[in-house]
Design goal:
Layout: H1 6-13, H2 17-24, H3 32-45, H4 51-58, E1 63-68, H5 74-88, E2 93-98, H6 103-110, E3 120-123, H7 130-135, E4 142-145, E5 154-157, H8 160-173, E6 179-182, H9 192-207, E7 216-217, H10 224-236, E8 243-246, H11 249-261, E9 271-275, H12 279-283, E10 289-293, H13 295-314, E11 328-330, E12 333-336
Parallel strand pairs: 1-2, 1-3, 3-4, 4-5, 5-11, 6-7, 6-8, 8-9, 9-10
Antiparallel strand pairs: 10-12
Helix pairs in contact: 1-2, 1-3, 5-13, 8-9, 10-11
């Protein structure tokens, strides 16, 4: 049986092909009755939009790439779900690629993986350097997630410095003064960890609490095992913090395990707060206080910006590369307070 076409829907509904097209494209100036009649014809005939033909006529593939460091990190898995959902609502297919935080793979993503099968790329970089972005020219359009590297591409993130400052201020308001930062980095480089460390230091300075470089606990990666190892190491050395600011929830969950092994009570002895609001933190014991980025907004804004750039790149009279400038969009975040800090007011006693 031949696949039904727009003219078949129009004949069945008793309307013009143009009216069917207006309904399919959600044109606002169509009466409810006409829209209902056309939809009934579509359902009856089993008509489906020919996306391949639509993309071919527009010079697009209808495929975008989402490139993240690791898919088994819950934050990126949850973010990918939101990106896929947003893209599907716009009739796009998402190719998900795992870079492993490798610079060459991230550079390959900027270049569209050396082919023309993606219309654009949403990239969350870890190893990419500012000069890599400056060297990127031409297709495919790219939107960056995470900390801003430099001008040259549209960018979507939360205000990481402000978020870390607010999280630290919460710990300080509980009376905690010996706050360690798990995953903290103060090396002058550009990145999310560095931005969050700046926020931590700002909060300490505003509270009159001296900053000690030894309060930063660097990690090789942002996994639970890294958080557990970092906290285990300082506890073994005899350090007894009264609070931990962990730069993601995976580090915080690992830290909770290490604290438990040493008999520290959370939050009575050590208050703990993380970043990302991943599902595991809602079910840990104690449940994890965290900075919650609006992941749905990150996905929505990133897809919107990417589609705008794709439209510009495929129009008959392409705009200059610098037309309109790049967009730096900051989305909302909020503190979610749970058991790992709640009820922790007052200075912790010896443990």
């Amino acid at each position: 049986m031949a696949r039904p076409r727009i003219k078949d829907v129009a004949r069945h509904a008793g309307v013009s092909e143009k009216t069917v097209s207006n309904v399919l494209n959600d044109y606002i100036h169509v009466s409810d009755r006409t829209r209902r009649v056309v939809q009934e014809a579509i359902d009856h005939l089993g008509y489906r939009i020919n996306l391949a033909g639509r993309h071919l006529r527009s010079g697009r593939t209808g495929i975008i790439a989402l490139v993240v460091p690791e898919l088994d990190v819950p934050y990126f898995a949850e973010l990918a779900q939101h990106v896929v959902r947003e893209a599907e609502s716009r009739s796009l297919t998402v190719l998900i690629h795992q870079s492993g935080g490798d610079r060459e793979r991230e550079k390959a993503a900027l270049a569209g993986f050396g082919s023309d099968f993606v219309d654009g790329v949403i990239l969350s970089p870890l190893a990419l350097a500012p000069e890599d972005l400056h060297a990127h020219a031409g297709p495919p359009p790219t939107v960056l997630l995470g900390e801003l590297l430099t001008a040259g591409a549209d960018h979507v993130a939360i205000d990481n410095e402000r978020a870390a400052r607010e999280a630290t201020e919460h710990l300080l308001a509980l009376g905690r003064r010996h706050i360690l930062t798990v995953g903290g980095r103060d090396d002058g480089c550009v990145g999310t960890a560095q931005a969050r460390t700046r926020g931590y230091r700002t909060a300490l300075a505003e509270a009159g609490v001296p900053y000690d470089p030894a309060s930063l606990l660097p990690v090789d990666a942002f996994h639970m095992s890294d958080g557990a190892s970092a906290v285990h190491r300082v506890l073994t050395e005899g350090v007894r913090p009264d609070a931990l600011l962990c730069l993601n929830d995976q580090l915080a969950l690992g830290a909770l395990r290490a604290l438990h092994a040493y008999g520290a009570r959370v939050p009575e002895d050590v208050a703990v707060i993380g970043f990302d609001d991943v599902e595991g933190g809602r079910f840990s014991v104690p449940s994890l206080s965290t900075v919650a980025p609006d992941k749905e907004a990150v996905a929505r804004v990133a897809v919107h910006l990417l589609l705008r750039r794709i439209d510009e790149a495929t129009r008959p009279d392409p705009l200059p590369d610098d037309a309109g400038g790049t967009q730096d969009r900051v989305v909302a975040h909020r503190l979610v307070l749970r058991e790992s800090t709640e009820g922790a007011a007052g200075r912790a006693g010896a443990w």
